[in-house]
Structure formats: C-alpha cells, structure tokens
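Ligand-bound model needed. 5CA.
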Amino acid sequence: MRLSKFFLPVLKETPAEASIVSHQLMLRAGMMRQGAAGIYSWLPLGHRVLQKIAQIVREEQNRAGAVEMLMPTIQSADLWRESGRYDAYGAEMLRISDRQEREMLYGPTNEELITEIFRAGVRSYKDLPKMLYHIQWKFRDEIRPRFGVMRGREFLMKDTYSFDLTPEDARKSYYRMFAAYLRTFARMGLRAVPMRADTGPIGGDLSHEFIVLAETGESEVFCHRKLVDMDIPPADTDFDGDLTDIFEGRTSLYAATDEMHDAAEFAQIPAEEQLSARGIEVGHIFYFGNKYSEPMNCKVMGPDGRESLVEMGSYGVGVSRLVGAIIEAHHDESGCNWPVSVAPFHVGLVNLKAGDAETDRVCADIYSKLEQAGIEVLYDDRDARAGEKFATMDLIGLPYQLVVGPRGLKNGVIEVKNRNTGEKQELALDKAVELVSTAILDALKVA
Ligand code: 5CA
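Prediction:
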C-alpha cells in the first residue's frame, strides 16, 4: 500500500479527551474516530488491526472445533421475554421499535437467539457436542463509556455457545475453550491470566475472566504469580480429547477478580508468590447449564429415549477491546510497537527522496519483492520531510522500517530498523529484504 493512496490522518498533539495511552495512540495514529460517546469509526489502519485480531480468534476457535456463523445485530424482544432477561437486562439494553411498533433491541449478547436457532435445528444427542460462534457488533448502553475502545457502547465481540448432553461433557467444552483462549491471547503477544469470576447478567456458577495485566486496567485482580506464566497449549493439542484435568488443575491456584476476592485465602499464598495488580478483561467464559435451555425449552433426545435439557456455556472475546489492550502492552514513548501477528502492516518502507529516480526505483523494487514474499508493506512515497516520515512510522509502530535514501544508495545500502529493539543496521538491498522477510515469516509461524 502506498501511503499517498492510503488514509492515515495522524495527529501531532495528544487529544485532551484521551486519558490512557492506548486511547491516545489510537487517535494519534489515525486508527479510529469517535462518532458518538463510546461509538467509533474504524479508520483503515485500525480496521486492519481489528481484522488481524478477529482472524487469530477465528483460527483458534476453528482449531478448538467451534463452527462460525453470523447472527444479526438486531433481535426481537420476544425471545428475551422467553428467557426472562428482557426486563432483567435494564438500561444497558438499547431498545428500539420498528415501524409496526414491534419491540426490537440491539443485541448486547446472543444466548437467546442461539438457543432458539439450536432448538429449531437439533433433536438428538447424536448431534452433540456442538459449538457455534460468530464475530459481531454488540451494543451496551454503558453508563460510563471510557478509554476509547476499551469500554465502548458499540463493540466487536466474538461469542461462542456450546451445547452438550451432560454437565461432564459441558465441562469438557468449557476447558476446550479455556485452552483456545490461552492460545488466542498468546498469539497476539499477550499474557492473559485466567481468574475466577462473577457471572453477572449472563448467569451460571463456573466462570473465568481472562485478564491482561496493565496498570490502566479497570479490573483489580489477585493471583498466584505462577498463573502469569502458565504454559500455552501447543497447536497439536487434541481438542477432541478431555482437557478438563489439565486446566482444572492449573486453575486451582488462587486467582480472582475484585468481586470474587477472598483476602483470607489469598493470605495463604507465600508473600513472594502473591500478585495483586490491575488488568484488562479481554475474555470471559461461562458454564451456565440450563439457565436458557430450561425457560426456552431447548431439549434433545437422549440415548435412553428420553428428552433432556441441553447443557450450555458461552464464551466471549472482546475483539475491539483487544486493540487497546495490545497497545497498552506494546508501546513506547514514540508510539505503538505492534507484535508481527497483529501489525497493520509488517514493514514501513520510507523513501527519503520521493521523486528521485534512483530512490523511487529501489523502493519500487523492494516493495514488489516483499509483497511477493507475502509481506505487507506500507510504502511512504510522499513528498515530505524525513523527520515527519520517521515520526509517523514510529507512531504507527510497524515491526520493521526500511529506509531508502540517496546517501545510502551511493554505498549500495539501505537502513533496516527493528521497531521493537530500536536496532538499526545498514545492509545491501537484497540482504535487507531477506532479513526482514525471514524474520516476519518466522514470527507468523503458529506454534
Ligand atoms: N455472552 C457472554 C459470553 S459470549 C458475554 O457477553 N460475556 S461478557 O459480557 O463478559 O463480554 C465478553 C467480552 O466482551 C468481555 O470479556 C470484554 O472483553 C468484552 N466487552 C464487554 N463489554 C465491553 C465494552 N463495553 N466495550 C468493549 N468490550 C467489551
């Protein structure tokens, strides 16, 4: 992509309305723009990151055996009356009526709709277990939308729903998702700590929040330090097998959000192993059994020929919130510092003298070689000052910068900068292309 054709409205000043660094950087780097309180347009750069995050979430959901679909954002109030949540949900639900005065709502979550879809399509235990998910916009009329995409009113969520015959099978589904979540966040360069959590309006009694430790996080958390370095399940994990033992064991270590915190229990952990910190909730999983299948009469025929209520769970990832969470974890004073897996582009190619025949030719050559290798390049071909180009590249935080100028070319070299380490080296053109493409393709390998 040529920067002259792209749309990158960067800001020089830090906007006063943004109090945390991820919100500031998303505005400054031209990633998003507020439309109304807690409602954002995703500009091209931010949209690319959002798509990359959604794609990693998707790949790990698919690996764990969940099947993708897409439900609408607008739902009918009737279904929510069946579950009893229409009134219970309160002011957070955006209620709408259509031209026939029918009551509708902008979905804050999808337990009711998926239960209705499932009960219409599945009759027998032989079709179980089943896990279905979608990645769709949600609306919650939060009292205090803040911190940009971290607590929005409209936000992108991945929500998965599991259906099983028995509570034991439902636990297996739960821990499959648990493993998938550890992989998902690790692939984005995040350490997300699973914490026992309150189930709130979703319901149920088994629930974990996945929390990325960050000072600016809204949640207060307490845990055993060992949980922060939990092993990530490898790609060849058998997701058809039973992972319950592995993860139930690991989560027996103390970890709790503020609402679930038990000071006496926490005090039993040796002081040097205690961690109390703040964090960002990037995922939340729930096992709630019959909470929706019962009022909505969602049953399947069991092996004994008798009908039984389906055991359900739901599993959310805050896809748009993750954009902010990743910036909180990966930035420095000059700007964002994206992990390769979610970077909006892999390489920023800087032409220090756009319009000069030789620098133009070399840049075009590098651009096409990198694109052929499958590397995504943002090529700054604008007629602008070097200082401005460098500042923009550091701000948007692409993992590598290749800098091409007439002085270097006289000696047959270009500069390669690693955004993360700050390390710079001068290399011959082909060497530079090779170094950068190898490093990026390696980083993109899924372990
Ligand atoms: N139905 C369940 C699971 S699918 C559910 O809605 N869970 S939730 O309420 O915990 O939301 C799932 C995830 O969405 C949260 O972990 C959080 O990462 C994200 N999320 C929730 N509210 C917001 C918000 N206002 N802005 C941005 N992300 C949010």
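The CA atoms of residues 271 and 379 lie 51 Å apart.
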